[in-house]
Amino acid sequence: MLVSYKWLQEYIDLEGVSAEELAEKITKSGIEVEGVEKLNEGLKGVVVGHVLECEKHPNAEKLNKTLVDLGNGEQVQIICGAPNVGKGQKVAVATVGAVLPGNFKIKKAKLRGEESHGMICSLQELGIEGKLAPKEYAEGIYNFTPDTEIGQDALEALNRDDEILELGLTPNRADAMSMLGVAYEVGAILGKDIKLPNPQPETSTELASDYINVTVEAKEDNPLYVAKVIKNVKVGPSPVWLQTRLMAAGIRPHNNVVDITNFILLEYGQPLHAFDYDKLGSKEILVRRAKDGEVIETLDDVKRTLTPDHLVITNGTEPVALAGVMGGANSEVGSDTTTVLLESAYFTGGVIRKASKDHGLRSEASSRYEKGVDPARVRPAAERAAELMIELAGGEVLGGEAEADALDVKPAVVSTTLGKINKVLGTDLEMNQVEDIFARLKFETAVDNDTITVTVPTRRGDITIEEDLIEEVGRLYGYDNLPTTLPVGESTPGHLSDYQKKRRVVRRYMEGAGLYQAVTYSLTSAEKATQYALDKREPVQLAMPMSEDRSLLRLSIVPQLLEVLKYNIARQTESFAAYETGAVFLKNSNEDLPEEREHLAAAITGLWESHPWQGEKKPVDFFVLKGIVEGLFAKLGLESQLDFAKAELDGLHPGRTAEILLNGNVIGFIGQVHPTQQKSLDLKETYVFELSLKALLEAETAPLQYTAIPRFPSISRDIALVVEKATAAGDLETIITEAGGSLLKEVNVFDLYEGEKMEEGKKSLAFSLKYFDPEKTLTDEDIAKAHNKVLAALEEKAGAVLRG
Amino acid sequence: MQDRLKELQAEALEKVATAADLKELNDVRVSYLGKKGPITEVLKGMGKLSAEERPKMGALANEVRDAISGQIEVKQKELEEAAVQKQLASEQIDVTLPGRPVRTGSHHPLTSIIEEIEDLFIGMGYTVEEGPEVEKDYYNFEALNLPKGHPARDMQDSFYITEETLMRTHTSPVQARTMEKHQGKGPVRIICPGKVYRRDNDDATHSHQFMQIEGLVVDENVRMSDLKGTLEVFAKKMFGEDREIRLRPSFFPFTEPSVEMDISCKICGGSGCSVCKGTGWIEILGAGMVHPNVLEMAGYDSKKYTGFAFGMGPERIAMLKYGVDDIRHFYTNDVRFLKQFSVEE
Ligand SMILES: [Zn+2]
C-alpha cells in the first residue's frame, strides 16, 4: 500500500510530524514502512505554462516552435518535440535553470537555429512512471485541465510536493489497505482524532430500483450487493488532483467515472465497479457461480473460461463481470456512456482468491477482497462515489439503491483481563492505560473489575481472541517499553543428544582429515536420485516439481558430491576433497512419510599429499580413503566392528570397490568412481565412500575403560608368506588372529611383494606379529607354541608357506 | 725406569695434543695404555727393583697413566665438540622455504552459524530437536494454526509429494511434534535447526532449499518480556555487545502477538546506509508468543501455559555477518568460498 503523506492530512492533523518520523512511528507500533519516497526529489523550477502559439519548426520536421506564457508576465519561445503539443494547452514547463530527475539542468539552447528557453515536460520527465501516466499523455507532454491557473508551481499542481510511505502489509492488516484504515492506525499511534468523509449526495426523484433488480444466488460468496444508478454522466478526464492521487498510489487514471471508483477503493478500501447501464442489455443483476465452460471477456481483452469455482455478475443470462476481480468488456464504461450502474459489494475472500489464482489475475480489487474488506463500508463507499459522480461527472444520482442484503456480520466482542495482559506481556500496566489504548483505536470498551470487554469494529476483522487484544495493547504501549527479562521457572539442563555430539565428532574428524564440508540439495534428477544408492528403492517424487533437475529426493549423496568435485576441478582446482552429512529419503510403501536416514559421504580427487619444492606428489588412492574410514571407526570406538568386503557396485571400478560392514552388516561402500563415469565428469582418479551415519552413530560401543600399561615387554615375530595372488591379506590376518590365541595381541601387514622374483601367480605378504602376556615376560618356548600354531593354520587354510 | 716413564708420559701427551681426530686419539690410548703398551712393558722390569722402590714405582706408573688418560679425556671432549660443530656447520637449511602443507578441511559456514547458535542456547538450558524434512501437512500447517485454505499458506508455496505430505517449509513442525511429545506439560525449551524447502526460483536472494533455526519455550509463566530478554542475549552474543535490538509488530499465523526483531546496523551505526536500506536497522528474525490454538492443538491448556517462539535463517545471518552477497554460494560449494571459513572464530 502506497500512502500519500499529503492525502493522509485530509483525515488527520500531522502538524509537527514529518513523513520520516511518521514512518518510524508506524513501523515501531504496527506496520512496517518499507520506504519513504520524496516525489519531487531532485526536481525544481517547473511551472504551469500556457501555449499561446504553436507552429512547425522551420528547419525540423518533427519539432514545434511554441510561444509559452509562464504566467509571471514572461512569454518565452520553446522548441518542443512532443507530437501532441498544441495551441491553448496548459502544460508543465521546465524553465531555464530548472532541474529534472537525473540532475538534468535546463539551459537556454538553440535547436536547429531556433532559440529555446526551457522544456515542455511529459510526466515521465517529471519522474512519473510511464505506465501510470494517463494513456493519452503516455507518449507526449501532459495537459493540465483548462481551469488550471498558470504561473503556479507545476510540481505542486501535480501533487509532487508529497512523500509516499510504502507500507509492507502482513495478511492480517487488510484494514490498512485504505486511506481511512491508515488514518485510524495513525490516529491510534499519535493519539489524535480523525476526520471521516460524510457523503450526502443529492438524489433525484427517480429510484434506482426502477432501473435495476438485484438478485444474489450465491449468498455465501456475496452476502451484500448494493447497486446505485447515476444518469446523465459526462465521461471525460478527471481533475488533476484526482489523477495525481491515483498516480501517487500506483494507479493509472482513465476517465472520471473509473477514476472515482479507484479513488474510493483507495480511500475506503472498498472495491467498486462501474457498468455502462445501457450495455447491460437487461434490467437485472444476478450474482451466481459460473457454469462450467462459461466464457467471459474481461476488460483486459482476454477471453476466460470459467468453472463453478468462480463467481460471476450476470445480466440475468450473460456474465458481465468476474466478481471481485475484473469487469467484463461487454459492459465497460467508455466515452459514450451516459448511465452508470455502480456496484458496491461484499464478496468473501475464498471465492475471489480462487478466481484470481486460476486466471492469474491479481487486481487492486481482488487483493482487497482476498484479505477481507469491511462490510460496514459497502454503503458509505457507494454514497461517497455517488457524491463524486455528481461533482466530477455532472451525474444525477437516482434515489435509493437496488440491493440484496443477507449480511450477518456483527462487531466482535472480546474480553480479557488486566492480569492476563500483564502476565503475557510481562508488564505492570494499570487498567486506565489499557482503556486509553483502546480509546485511541476508537474501540468501545466496558470495564468490570479486572475484566475489560472490547467491541471491535468490523474494519478490524483480524481481532477475534483475547491474545489479539493483548497484541494491540503491547504494540501501542510500545515493545521498546517492555521490560527485558529471562524465563523463570523450573530449570532445564541444556545439552546435545549423544547422537548430536557424535555427529559433531564425525564432522571435526572429517575436517581434520582434510575434507571440506559441503551442503548440497536434497532434490535431484531422476538419473541422480538412484545413482550410488545403498538401498535400491524407488525414489520419492514431488507432485509438481519446478524442474526435472529438482524433481525427486535423493537416495544417496555421492552424485551431489561428484557434481561439487566437477564444479571445482573445472575451475582450476587441482585437488579437492569434500564430505557431507545429510538425509537420504527412502520411500515407505505402508507409511505416508518416507524414512529419512542420515548418511555420511565423501569424495576425493587429485593429489593427496604434495610437497611443492621437494617435488613430492602423491595422488589419492583407495587406501587413502580407506584409512579415513578406518580412522573414523577408531575415533568412535568401532574399529573392531569394522570390515571391508570386496564388491562390485554400479558406477564404481569393479576391481577397486568394497562394501563397508559394521558388525557384519553392510552399511556403506567405498571405491573408485568407474572410469567411464570419471570421464563424463572430467575427473581424474576419484574415490568415494558413503555410509549410513545413523547406523554408525547408533552402534553400541563398549564403555571406555582403562587397561593397565604393560609391565612386561612384548615380543615381535615377522613372517613373510608366499600365497596365491588372489588371496586377500584380510583373510590371512583372520587366520593368524584366530590361531594365535590369547597371547597374540597385534597383527600388521608390513610388506607386499608381487615383483618378478615371485613365481607366476604368487605374491609375498609379510606380517609382523606381536605376542604379549600381561602377567610375565614370555619365554621363547611360550611364543614358539603359539607361533607354530599360526604357521600351521596358515598352511592348512590358505596354502601359505614361509618365504625361503 | 723412572726416566723412561717420564719420557713415555711426555711422548704420549705430545701425541694426544696433536691427535687430529677421535680415531688418532683412540690409537694413542691403545698404544700407550693398552695391555701390550710401553708402560706395561716398563713395569715388567719391576721385578728387578727393591721392595722399597717397587710401590714408589707402581705409584709413579699410575700417575703417568692417569695423566695420559686424563689428557685423552679432555682431548676427546674437544674433538667431539669440534665434530658436532662441524656437522652443524654442514647442516644449514633455508628456514624461509615454506613448510610441508597440512591438509585441512573446514566446517561449512552454515554449520558454523548453526553450531554457534545451538551452543548459545544450550548454555541457556535448551536442547536441540530435529525432525523429518518430508512432513505431514498436519504438522507443517494445521498444527500451527494454518488450516487448509488459510491465506497465509500462499506466503510459503510449497513442494507437495502427496496431498498430505510435503517438503517442510519451516522447522516449526518440529516444535509441534515436540510439544505433542511433552503431552501438555512443561517446561519445553528447544532449538530446532534444519533444512527447509520452498517453491522459489534460485537467485541471489532465494533458494529452493535453505536452513532455518527456530526456538521454542513453553511453560506456565512465559512472558513476552522473556522473549525480548532472550533475543537480546542472542543478538549481543551473535552480533556484538554494542548492537541494539528493536521489536516491531508483525504477523505469523502461529504466534500472537507476533514481532520481527531488527538489530542496529553495524555498518552505518544507525544513521542509514545501503545495507540497512537507509533505516539504520536490519531485520534478523521473526518471533512471538505461541498462538493459543497451537498450544491447544498440541495438548496444552492455553489458560495455564504460555510460550514464545522465534525463527531465523542461518543464510541470512551468515550473509550479514560475513558480507556474503549471494545465497547460492552456500550451495555451490566452491572451494574458494568454503576455504574462507576455515578460520575458527
Ligand atoms: Zn546501515
From TrEMBL, chain A:
Single GO term (MF): catalytic activity, acting on a protein
CDD domains: PheRS_beta_core, tRNA_bind_bactPheRS
InterPro entries in alphabetical order: aa-tRNA-synth_II/BPL/LPL, B3/B4_tRNA-bd, DNA-bd_dom_put_sf, Fdx_antiC-bd, Fdx_antiC-bd_sf, NA-bd_OB-fold, Phe-tRNA-ligase_IIc_bsu, Phe-tRNA-ligase_IIc_bsu_bact
Keywords: Aminoacyl-tRNA synthetase, ATP-binding, Cytoplasm, Ligase, Magnesium, Metal-binding, Nucleotide-binding, Protein biosynthesis, RNA-binding, tRNA-binding
One Pfam family per UniProt: FDX-ACB
Entry keyword annotation includes Metal-binding: yes
Domain B5: 409-484
Source taxon at top rank: Bacteria
The UniProt record lists the keyword Magnesium: yes
E.C. no: 6.1.1.20
Location(s) in or outside the cell: Cytoplasm
Cofactor binding, per record: Binds 2 magnesium ions per tetramer.
Catalytic activity reported: tRNA(Phe) + L-phenylalanine + ATP = L-phenylalanyl-tRNA(Phe) + AMP + diphosphate + H(+)
Residues holding Mg(2+): D462, D468, E471, E472
One BP annotation, GO: phenylalanyl-tRNA aminoacylation
Cofactor: Mg(2+)
A GO CC term assigned to this protein in UniProt: phenylalanine-tRNA ligase complex
Domain FDX-ACB residues, every copy: 710-803
Chain ranges of the TRNA-binding domain: 40-155
NCBIfam families xrefs: pheT_bact, YtpR
Alphabetized PANTHER family for the sequence: PHENYLALANINE--TRNA LIGASE BETA SUBUNIT, PHENYLALANYL-TRNA SYNTHETASE BETA CHAIN AND LEUCINE-RICH REPEAT-CONTAINING PROTEIN 47
Oligomer status and interactors: Tetramer of two alpha and two beta subunits.
Family: Belongs to the phenylalanyl-tRNA synthetase beta subunit family. Type 1 subfamily.
Protein name: Phenylalanine--tRNA ligase beta subunit
Species annotation: Mesobacillus selenatarsenatis (strain DSM 18680 / JCM 14380 / FERM P-15431 / SF-1)
Upper classification of the organism: Bacteria, Bacillati, Bacillota, Bacilli, Bacillales
TrEMBL record, chain B:
Any one Gene Ontology BP term: phenylalanyl-tRNA aminoacylation
One matching Pfam family: tRNA-synt_2d
Subcellular location as annotated: Cytoplasm
Residues where Mg(2+) binds: E256
InterPro entries according to UniProt: aa-tRNA-synth_II, aa-tRNA-synth_II/BPL/LPL, Phe-tRNA-synth_IIc_asu, Phe-tRNA_ligase_II_N, Phe_tRNA_ligase_alpha1_bac, Phenylalanyl-tRNA_Synthase, tRNA-bd_arm
Residue span, Aminoacyl-transfer RNA synthetases class-II family profile domain: 111-340
Keywords: Aminoacyl-tRNA synthetase, ATP-binding, Cytoplasm, Ligase, Magnesium, Metal-binding, Nucleotide-binding, Protein biosynthesis
EC number: 6.1.1.20
Assembly mode: Tetramer of two alpha and two beta subunits.
Family of this protein: Belongs to the class-II aminoacyl-tRNA synthetase family. Phe-tRNA synthetase alpha subunit type 1 subfamily.
The protein's name in its UniProt record: Phenylalanine--tRNA ligase alpha subunit
The encoding gene: pheS
